[in-house]
Amino acid sequence: MASKSFLTYAARAKQHPNPIARRLLELAEEKKSNVVVSADLTTTKELLYLADRLGPYIALFKTHIDIISDFSNETVEGLKSLSEKHNFLIFEDRKFVDIGHTVQMQYDGGALRISEWAHIVNASILAGDGIVEALASIGTADTVEHKGQRGLLMLAHMTTKGSLATGAYTQASIESARLHKDFVVGFVANHALTEVADPTTATEDEDFVVFTTGVNRATKDGPLGQQYQTPKKAIARGADFIISGRGIYATENPIETVQLYQKEGWEAYLDRVGGEPEA
Ligand code: 6AU
């Protein structure tokens, strides 16, 4: 798959066809941050406290909203207002995987009302391309809540030992993304997807954004099969954005830590694009 990662975020934002990708690339350039904090916390208070403290240093705030024990309207309103206050987008790591009809209800309805507040969600291609079509029909609809300003990441790899998200599965994620460029922002992938996918189905303007998770400066492996790489290594291997959870929020001083990730991630990005980007 061709990559535009040699270009600056600003240059990519200018030509990107996807509105959410444009916003994300613009705010990364503005805030000089390619950091996504994975806020795997279990109460509204902890979640909002972290978003408020780390908000200035991040591009995207990632939630697992179904682990919040006291989820309510306050959770949603708090996330929305902090996203505006600190200019970050919200990524609900829901990993949709079911049949189209079911994921539509999970995305748009239920107690969690994900499409109302999450700018970005992710999905697995396991069930085939219908899942992307189903989610896109909601995310690109011009509703009062989101005006079609929603995006999807395809889960093209997984970080865990023994992951089956490889080969034909990864290729199918790319082929499906190519069919839904107005909705698919990019991939959750361990590295750039340059070695896979059919080049004949690519178009010139293709610019999928790569989000690499399993990022941690302090340790190589986590418990339960999680595998890590450093921010610098992740960016050198093709990540446009780095996702880190415990490596940031579970440290003694998460604000200092997130600033370190921001600096390391930004310097690695500048190295890749060849110096200070144009204003
Ligand atoms: O940095 P950690 O290990 O504390 O957290 C990593 C976060 C978790 C996982 O659910 C998520 O990243 N994740 C994902 C995502 C983002 O889709 C995919 C994957 O393969 N591995 C992974 O850890 O919230």
Automatic annotation (TrEMBL):
Enzyme class: lyase
Record pathway: Pyrimidine metabolism; UMP biosynthesis via de novo pathway; UMP from orotate: step 2/2
SUPFAM superfamilies reported in the protein's UniProt record: Ribulose-phoshate binding barrel
Record keywords: Decarboxylase, Lyase, Pyrimidine biosynthesis
Active site: D93, K95, D98
Gene Ontology MF, one: orotidine-5'-phosphate decarboxylase activity
EC number of this enzyme: 4.1.1.23
Alphabetical list of Pfam families matching this protein: OMPdecase
Gene Ontology process terms (BP): 'de novo' pyrimidine nucleobase biosynthetic process; 'de novo' UMP biosynthetic process
Residues at which substrate binds: D40, K62, T159, Q226, G245, R246
Source organism, top-level taxon: Eukaryota
Segments forming domain Orotidine 5'-phosphate decarboxylase: 34-261
An example Gene Ontology CC term for this record: cytosol
Reaction equations catalysed: orotidine 5'-phosphate + H(+) = UMP + CO2
InterPro entries: Aldolase_TIM, OMPdecase, OMPdecase_AS, OMPdeCOase_dom, RibuloseP-bd_barrel
Family designation: Belongs to the OMP decarboxylase family.
Stated name of the protein: Orotidine 5'-phosphate decarboxylase
UniProt organism field: Lepraria neglecta
